């Protein structure tokens, strides 16, 4: 099974970090292909940075059996689901669902205050209000997570500890793909499940593909209508995109991967 893990920001070191996490948890029969956005922001920390950040990488290269969007804002998730029938997983959605399988409540620990607000929107969009106790910002910028010797790890640990005490959270969801290497250490220190969305999305992708499921093309996730696009975005007109195949593979083929 081919799973394409897309880092929607342009920082290749973060893609490598996510790749390590993904390959650690992937089934032996899964091949993880990494992609870094070729245009856009070095880190995604707001709505503007999110726009169109993943479309190029969904339509570029060999079609995959599933795609994972490796950014906690789940940028472009529904747009991506429109332009391919292969399942597309966002790491925030996957992480929140995974958390509900191992705890009745969780808190999200993320990066900046503005990202905290975006995560709150996602909690509501995904119907997770009953499970998510609180979204907590650490004021750690995304790229600081990569800096050796920064205080980022200690700050995140301290915020997770507050979540357990003040929110009475039973699990922690990490609110940035750049935190995926912290899971084991945090879990040991905190003694509760710590969920990283990259790992969660890869495993959910394997499960969904293994069940022979594809994105529904009968409603709002149908392929985009052939609208005319003008100006700088003309090359993104649906007519110019390489839309991916529509067929539903037999279950046996999907499982064989
Ligand atoms: C992220 C993330 O996961 N990657 C990125 O560039 N920004 N999310 C975040 N919550 O800060």
Q: How does this model look, in words?
A:
With 257 residues, the protein is of the alpha/beta class. The protein has 2 domains: 2-91 and 202-250, 3-Layer(aba) Sandwich (Rossmann fold); 92-196, Rossmann fold, CATH 3.40.50.12500. The protein is 38% helix and 14% strand. It is built from 10 helices and 8 strands. It has helices at residues 12-25, 47-50, 55-59, 77-83, 91-102, 113-125, 152-166, 183-190, 197-210, 251-256; strands spanning 2-7, 31-36, 66-69, 88-90, 106-110, 132-137, 172-175, 194-196. Strands 2-1-3-4 form a 4-stranded parallel β-sheet, sandwiched between helices. The longest helix has 15 residues, at 152-166. The protein is globular. The protein starts with a strand and ends with a helix. The model is unreliable at 250-257 (pLDDT under 50). Bound molecules: 1-(2,5-dioxo-2,5-dihydro-1H-imidazol-4-yl)urea. 1-(2,5-dioxo-2,5-dihydro-1H-imidazol-4-yl)urea binds next to loops.
Write the layout of secondary structure elements.
Layout: E1 2-7, H1 12-25, E2 31-36, H2 47-50, H3 55-59, E3 66-69, H4 77-83, E4 88-90, H5 91-102, E5 106-110, H6 113-125, E6 132-137, H7 152-166, E7 172-175, H8 183-190, E8 194-196, H9 197-210, H10 251-256
Parallel strand pairs: 1-2, 1-3, 3-4, 5-6, 5-7, 7-8
